[in-house]
Specification:
It is elongated, with a radius of gyration of 21 Å. The longest helix has 29 residues, at 120-148. It is built from nine helices and no strands. Helix content is 66%, strand content 0%. The chain has 205 residues and is an all-alpha fold. The protein has helices spanning 11-33, 40-47, 51-55, 61-73, 86-100, 103-114, 120-148, 159-174, 184-197.
């Protein structure tokens, strides 16, 4: 029997706690040693569990790392409240994205980049989910601006603009610049995003 069955508390809460410990340990290990150094045995040691307990949950390294990445993605929140103007909303949104790029997540991104050729599904899946999260929060601020009368209805795909801003902030973090302190949020807001949104400005009567 594995050690989960010896716990004094009911099995379901215990199992959920162990699941979280395994995912946290897996993410930490992946960020530290990357794909090549990743092993179920080390995850089990860090999670204070056993390799069989992990094998019962995940079929492969890729499955476990993907689950850990998804668990981490669930903690991302790019939604911002109404700041009264399009410019203020754009700045708040870019700041939220920048603040989400913590040192731990920079290590995760670096590990994903390094293993992208060997296990491309990991980086592709992570990127797709990030695009979905940032895209949804971005469109919310665009809709607010439209409701306020600052811009007309979007007449072009916003995905490329969102991806450019997000990628710029990530590249700044990978270059060991804190995107929340380097001034890049202001530059992206005022020199890139706002000028590109200008053609969408609602006509004045």
């Amino acid at each position: 029997m594995d050690k989960e069955s010896h716990a004094p508390s009911p099995g379901r809460p215990q199992s959920l706690t162990l699941d979280q410990q395994i995912l946290a340990a897996a993410l930490e290990l992946f960020a530290t040693v990357g794909w090549d150094g990743f092993s179920f045995a080390e995850v089990a040691r860090r999670a204070r569990s056993t390799p069989p307990a992990i094998y019962r949950r995940y079929d492969s390294k890729a499955d476990l790392i993907d689950a850990a990445l998804r668990h981490e993605l669930a903690t991302f929140n790019f939604a911002t409240s109404d700041h009264g103007t399009l410019r203020a909303d754009v700045h708040a949104w870019a700041s939220a994205v920048a603040k989400s790029i913590t040192p731990k997540r920079v290590k995760i991104l670096a590990a994903l980049i390094l293993c992208a050729e060997e296990v491309p599904q990991l980086s592709r899946g992570f990127e797709r989910h990030i695009q979905e999260l940032t895209g949804a929060s971005w469109m919310a601020l665009i809709e607010r601006a439209n409701f306020r009368g600052e811009i007309g209805s979007p007449n072009q795909d916003q995905a490329q603009l969102v991806q450019f801003v997000t990628s710029s902030l990530v590249m700044s973090a990978l270059a060991q610049n804190n995107p929340t302190e380097s001034g890049i949020v202001e530059k992206l807001t005022d020199q890139i995003v706002m000028p590109l949104l200008q053609p969408m400005a609602a006509p004045t009567s």
